Amino acid sequence: MSEKIINLGIQIIPKSQTLDAYALVDKAISVIQQSGVKYVVTPFETVMEGKQEQLMAVAMKAQDAVLEAGADEVLVYYRMQIRKNSDVIIEDKIGKYVK
Q1: Which domains does the chain have, with CATH numbers?
Q2: In this prediction, what percent of the chain has a pLDDT beyond 70?
Q3: pTM over cut 0.85
């Protein structure tokens, strides 16, 4: 895997007959917050910044946390931006929009 910094967007959609979906998503976001990686939470996904191997490990822990919190199943969608010769930095893309 590349040593470049990438962006990984993750959307976790928990399925449960009895538990609140937002509370389950909060478990995933908590894992991301505690990981130490740079991240931005949006209404549809959370975008992380770092090395691909590190971000995939965080993503796996996040989905496991949702299952451990009681979800019956999870749908997980990933999107990654990877550049051949340079890093992908969140600030470069959205910095001018953040207040």
Answers
A1: 5-85 (3.30.70.930)
A2: 98
A3: yes
